[in-house]
Amino acid sequence: MSDYKIPNDDDVSPDDIHAAADLWDADLSEAYLRDADLSDANLSGADLSEADLEGADLSEAYLRDADLSEADLMFADLSEADLRDAADLSGAYLPDADLSGANLSKAYLSEAELKGANPPLVSILRAERERRPAGSPRDQKTAGDYLTPPSPE
What we know:
Helix content: under 10%
Distance between the termini: 45 Å
Strand content: under 5%
Shape: globular
């Protein structure tokens, strides 16, 4: 039995957390999923807000339009993950996360912590500089509006 905890979705059990899982539109908010293998999983539209995904493998995961706001993704592997089309990473904690090859087009990264992320911040800021449509929740800007390249040390 795993130590995973999924407090907000009775249809998802710890046994559902595995590589290539189909968790489309699941409510995984506040879930404890440290070191989970969700590589190649379908998490499109899933609510992962405030989830603990420290050290999780989300490589090649499909996270389009997922809510990862305030999620802990420290040391997570998001390499080649699909986070485009309004995936919400606002306020997410991503230090030392692997974002190599991740598609962040139109992702929202306002106030996300990216220090130490791989590749460096300058390389991952491919998110477009446009606001969410008027009247949408949070009406936030994309990463390029809030984040600046790190200063040389």
